[in-house]
Amino acid sequence: MSKRIAWHRAQGHTVVVVSASLDLYLQPWCQARGLDSICNRLAHRDGILTGRYEDGDCGPHKARLIRARYDLASFERIHAYGDSREDRPMLALGHERWYRGKRLA
């Protein structure tokens, strides 16, 4: 995926990492590489993590969260990559779809 991200960046594409991973480590990793992210955010109260998600588990809602943040019609071509069953609705948003390293028809 690092090579694919580099290729997309070289093309000037908007790259968004969409993951059910936690914001504590995914967001800094993405920010260091100039990438946007949609991921699970841990809730905190008075500076203490609660152990809960801020807005629930984003995993099953990836496609909805993408649509809420981006005007997909403004993109000429959308490349989508996934590796879990819950990624399938997200993959349906793409013109070019890849699942576990294999291109989908």
Keywords:
105 residues; alpha/beta; Rossmann fold; three-stranded mixed beta sheet; 30% helix; globular
Explain what you see.
The structure is a single chain. The strands form three sheets. Strands 5-6-7 form a three-stranded mixed β-sheet. Strand 3 and strand 4 form a beta hairpin. It has 105 residues and is of the alpha/beta class. 30% of the residues lie in helices and 31% in strands. It has one domain: Rossmann fold. The mean pLDDT is 96.
CATH superfamily: HAD superfamily/HAD-like
Unreliable stretches covering 5 or more consecutive residues:
none
CATH hierarchy: architecture: 3-Layer(aba) Sandwich
**For this entry, what is the oligomeric state of its chains?**
single chain
Lateral strand order in the biggest sheet:
5-6-7
Give the overall average pLDDT.
Answer: 96
Percent helix: 25-40%
Tally of separate domains:
1
* CATH level 1 name: Alpha Beta
The total of beta strands comes to 7
Please tally the helical runs, counting DSSP H or I stretches of 4 or more residues.
4
How much is the radius of gyration in Å? 14 Å
Main β-sheet description: 3 strands, mixed
Secondary-structure element string: HEHEEEHEHEE
Strand content: 25-35%
- Structural class, judged by helices and strands? alpha/beta
CATH fold name: Rossmann fold
Q: Globular, elongated, flat, extended or rod-shaped: what is the shape?
A: globular
- State the separation between the terminal residues, measured CA to CA: 20 Å
